[in-house]
């Protein structure tokens, strides 16, 4: 077992396990003073910097071992240009959720390498980001062995590069991103 850039990596009888629980323990909530924002929902520079720091820490978790928070981090990151008080509350809530749920990634024995395959899942939604017109898409790619075991290789939730006019268009662009990544991994 060893630690590498915030990842706890260990080999068990089931396979190799990646975990970031010790890193997650070091991440702290944004302190929010009661009554500080009575007149305005816009936050000051210090609170904006604290929000940016927390979102960066959450993004590190989401990109390494916690695909379950990828969309939450995406949604928070879209608000960093003009952060509001509610964004600080949402960031703290996301952090609390992550701390309450243990999560790790297992890379099990997948059997014969010649019989492995990539399985791709993608999804998107039309105009579902806080600005009211941007769409988000995401994917997850698994490596599946002939013994029916699998492990995640790549995942991402991101803002779709252009404004689309339908859910079908958003889902098509998300699928293109997923297939591109699968082709790269393959």
Automatic annotation (TrEMBL):
It comes from the Eukaryota. This is Reverse transcriptase. The lineage of its organism: Eukaryota, Metazoa, Ecdysozoa, Arthropoda, Crustacea.
